[in-house]
Design brief:
There is one protein chain. By secondary structure, this protein is of the alpha+beta class. The chain has five domains: 3-60, Helix hairpin bin (Helix Hairpins), CATH 1.10.287.610; 72-304, D-amino Acid Aminotransferase, Chain A, domain 1 (2-Layer Sandwich); 308-385, OB fold (Dihydrolipoamide Acetyltransferase, E2P) (Beta Barrel), CATH 2.40.50.140; 420-563, DNA polymerase, domain 1, CATH 1.10.150; 582-647, BRCT domain (Rossmann fold, 3-Layer(aba) Sandwich). It is built from 22 helices and 24 strands. Strand 21 (582-586), helix 20 (593-602) and strand 22 form a beta-alpha-beta unit. Helix 1 (3-21) runs antiparallel to helix 2 (30-46), helix 12 crosses helix 13 (443-451) and helix 16 (495-501) crosses helix 17 (509-519). The protein is globular and about 80 Å long.
Length: 648
């Protein structure tokens, strides 16, 4: 076989594979495909230097890694705002059209899988990165290359990021779980977890066997010159990517609702799990004008599907101890299949709910599950009771450590700080993204470190030595060094992150920022009156903070000493033209609007998203739209970016 003949056969194989995996319309028999595949493979074995970059033989996997490295997205991957009712959709549409006028919308299914970002450089797939925190994810290129619906090459010059969802079909999910059970392994909880777990296999040949599917839903970095998102997506589909089974361009809320109800009617028919419908503003110029909040684009939202209800029976009630010591009752139920996932547990929140709903062991109940929401019991079927049901009593002793529980009514708590469950869960929370972000310190590792008595609290993390880990299974020198380095990298972290990582009940990231700015390291001695005086912090939050600091004061002070967190000083903005003024930004600036927003806020300005009579300045860049027009009609002072900088 000549090289030219080899390349022709590679193209035929690609065509056949695309027809089978993407178009779901086979054009060759399996025997015919296998025969040609092995002819190509034999040539590549004999001529390893001539293997085509996009040869189908490269999809079988075989690359084995020690661990995954981190990689940064060219452009941030955002989350989506959720809406649940037609009224909420209408509110969202009103908010959008109030800012940019009448819009066209692009709607498509929202598949429940693992988000992925594919980077192509001059048409070649060079990197695949999981969503991660939206800025940095894990590089899983070797694994993604095994996915048949991901083209290894496309017709595009320069850099382009193609975003989408990696999913597993419901039927394939059942096969995978059956194989795992036969092998004595824990089954996956749902298809989404199966997809995510398959992408994180260190051996890419395992990923290749999982029949993963990639559905694109957007683009990041790109120079596509189309006025509409739907046109950009059509270009993507034309490169060999899967089209969603249905999508629709809509102009009114009625059309959006009709398509939403249509997708619900196809919920069982479509082989992938869907948890909603995505609504996007179709015009790119209006997307850019709408911009982003801290969490998500203002030009798209997820219209979530209603929860699925099933009837099952409560077999037992078990107790979980959280990181703050709160005891949460969990109903162990007869396993029931919900969209391909076998559900065997449902949350009960607290014992007040058990008493209010008169839930008993042995009851027949209705449970609901919506998307990735944990299943919960919504109704007890009392007419099915036989008299053998057992009432649930409030516990008086911790199920883990046996110590006496504090019953506060709604909440029942274990006060023992050395309780193993409290220790493990508090360390897991401490290490997760959004807190101290200790890469490589997942729940399984924490569990091992606590069971092996290497650590007993979060402070002990900073005193782990390499020799403490060498005897643990799977801990090689590189992994040990990476973990210790990740822990050391948290030193000097902003104080608010450390406060948030402590897992103080009712105190999240926003409250942590306010507390860090107000008290600094003096937070351990904060007084009730001082805490409740902070905007956004109520009595319950204040009491929780003070109780935590009273019980854990010594531990917190030691953490401050070891971590040496960065303390942001509360600085009063100097006098300037924008101090205490309300400012609106619109159009394209020389830098991102987020940078200018942060600069103005440091100057004491309040940056708003909408123009009104109370607006003091509208600062605009190129392609400014309706906000500039509205400002001019209201007589609001307008400034170019250059004029703003001159004023400073």
């Amino acid at each position: 076989m000549t090289n030219e003949q080899y390349l022709e056969k590679v193209q035929i194989l690609k065509k056949w594979a695309h027809a089978y995996y993407v178009e779901d319309n086979p054009v060759a028999a399996d025997e015919e495909y296998d025969k040609l595949y092995h002819e190509v493979l034999d040539y590549e074995t004999a001529h390893p230097d001539e293997v085509a970059e996009d040869s189908p033989t490269k999809r079988v996997g075989g690359v084995v890694r020690d661990e995954f490295s981190k990689a940064k997205h060219k452009k941030r991957m955002w989350s989506m705002e959720d809406v649940f009712t037609l009224d909420e959709v209408q509110e969202w549409l009103n908010r959008v059209e109030k800012n940019v006028g009448k819009c066209e919308y692009f709607c498509e299914p929202k598949f429940d899988g693992a988000s992925m970002n594919l980077l192509y450089d001059d048409g070649k797939l060079v990197r695949a990165i999981t969503r991660g925190d939206g800025v940095v994810g894990e590089e899983v290129t070797d694994n993604v290359r095994t996915i048949r619906s991901v083209p290894l090459a496309i017709d595009y010059e320069g850099l382009i990021e193609i975003r989408g969802e990696v999913v597993i079909r419901k039927d394939d999910f059942e096969v995978i779980n059956k194989e795992r059970l036969e092998a004595g392994e824990q089954p996956f909880a749902n298809p989404r977890n199966a997809a995510a777990g398959s992408l994180r296999q260190l051996d890419s040949s395992v990923t290749a066997k999982r029949k993963l599917v990639f559905y694109p839903w957007g683009v990041g970095e790109n120079i596509l010159n189309f006025p509409k998102l739907s046109q950009k997506m059509n270009f993507v589909y034309e490169q060999g990517f899967l089209r969603p089974p249905y999508n629709k361009e809509c102009n009114t809320s009625e059309e959006i609702e009709d398509f939403y109800q249509f997708l619900i009617s196809k919920r069982d028919e479509i082989p992938m799990m869907m948890d909603g419908m995505v609504i996007k503003v179709d015009e790119i110029s209006k997307e850019e004008e709408l911009g982003y909040t801290v969490k998500f684009p203002k030009w798209m939202c997820a219209y979530k599907f209603p929860a699925i209800e099933k009837i099952t029976k409560i077999e037992a009630i078990t107790l979980q101890v959280g990181r703050t010591g709160v005891i949460t009752p969990v109903a162990e139920i007869e396993p029931v299949n919900i969209e391909g996932a076998m559900v065997s547990r449902a949350t009960l929140h607290n014992f007040d709910e058990i008493e209010r709903k008169d839930i008993r062991i042995g009851d027949s109940v209705i449970i609901i599950r919506s998307g990735d929401v944990i299943p919960k019991i919504i109704k007890v079927l009392e007419d099915r009771r036989t008299g053998s049901e057992i009432p649930v009593t409030r516990p008086t002793q911790c199920p883990t450590c046996g110590s006496e529980l504090l019953d506060e009514g709604t909440l029942i708590k274990c006060q023992n700080l050395d309780c193993p469950d409290r220790v493990v869960n508090s360390i897991i929370h401490f290490a997760k993204k959004g807190c101290m972000n200790i890469d490589g310190l997942g729940s399984k590792i924490v569990d091992i470190l606590v069971k092996e008595h290497i650590i007993k609290d979060i402070l002990d993390l900073y005193f782990i030595k390499a020799e403490d880990l060498v005897h643990l299974e799977g801990f090689k020198e590189k992994r040990i060094n990476n973990l210790l380095q990740a822990i050391d990298n948290t030193k000097g972290t902003p104080l608010y992150r450390l406060i948030n990582a402590m897992g103080i009940e009712h105190i999240g990231e926003v409250a942590s920022k306010s507390l860090a700015l107000e008290f600094g390291l003096g937070i351990v001695d904060a007084k009730f009156e001082e805490v409740v005086a902070i905007d956004g912090i109520g009595e319950e939050m204040a009491n929780s903070l003070l109780e935590f600091m009273r019980v854990n004061r010594e531990l917190v002070l030691k953490l401050f000493d070891v971590v040496q967190p960065t303390v942001e000083e509360k600085v009063e903005a100097v006098d300037n033209p924008f101090k205490d003024k309300t400012v609106v930004l619109t159009g394209t600036m020389s830098v991102s609007r987020g940078v200018i927003k942060e600069m103005l806020e440091k100057l004491g300005a309040k940056v708003s998203g909408s123009v009104s009579k109370k607006t003091d300045f509208v600062i605009y860049g190129e392609d400014a739209g309706s906000k500039l027009t509205k400002a001019e009609s209201l007589g609001v002072t307008t400034l170019t970016e250059e004029a703003m900088r001159e004023m400073l």
